[in-house]
Amino acid sequence: MKIPATVITGFLGAGKTTAIRHMLENANGKRIALIINEFGDLGIDREILTSCGIEGCADDDVVELANGCICCTVADDFLPTIEKLIDRPDPPDHIVIETSGLALPKPLVKAFNWPEIRSRVTVDGVIAVVDGPAVAAGQFAHDPHAVQDAREADDALDHDSPLEEVFEDQLHCADIIVLNKSDLLDSGTLDRVRAELQEAASASVKVVSSSHGNIDPAILLGVSGAVEDVIEDRWSHHDGDDDHDHDDFDTIVVSIGDVTDPKVLTASIQDLAANHNILRIKGFVHVPGKSMRHVVQAVGGRVQHYFDREWQDGETRESRLVVIGQTGFDHEAVTASLQQ
Known about the structure:
Structural class: alpha/beta
């Protein structure tokens, strides 16, 4: 019997990690192995999941691939990782793959047809997690008419930009679209966004609403799609491409020292998002006088920060942030702002 695998895609900050954490908290004894592909060399998402205190969420069940975009390194990184998981004496019941926000799902799904794993693993389903407020603002809508006004006001919003293409590829490859952060939308806007997503995807795709990634794992796991068998029928901007790149994005890691007031850091992040084409900031910081590690996650100007666990004995209490922005953002200015 083949081991099912679920691919979870979604643009930067849509809520993939939060949805996976909720999935683990409600796994009901199912052994789930996670493969996490992060953009940047600081394993934030893996750390958040392995420190969550959920029974069954052991370190060796969470594998991080940080050598590049997962859809670009399937032969070097992804396939050997899958083989190691399924060759275990006690293999997982289900494999969940969290792609980076910049990954194209189709090349990854096609890798499941490689002879080494085809007879042993199947793609149960592809889940696209969508940031509801972002789509409502016209930032990644499928219909070009819906974003025309925003595009004219902001030169960065080009319908043919890689950001838009990545978003559309994720929708076209999905079996289920999770419309996340629905609690931030009024009922009329929620209905409009749901209709836009449904129109952008195929008629068979289910669009479900979610707040804080809270969605029944039974909806996400058990789709039984065998997607590797039908992936060629799913349209992509990059059909026929041998590869692709992410030259429109830069990433840096910034060490910022102790943070005495997280609210000041939040204000700095919001200013950077508004003035420096910053898409995503995430990391951990040390707050003097506090025994717990402080998590910072930002999508544009929306910033979340909270204490997640005690600093461990021998662990360096440092403050480091991964910053992802559009190519050309001022690394020195962003670094200086965060370090103030």
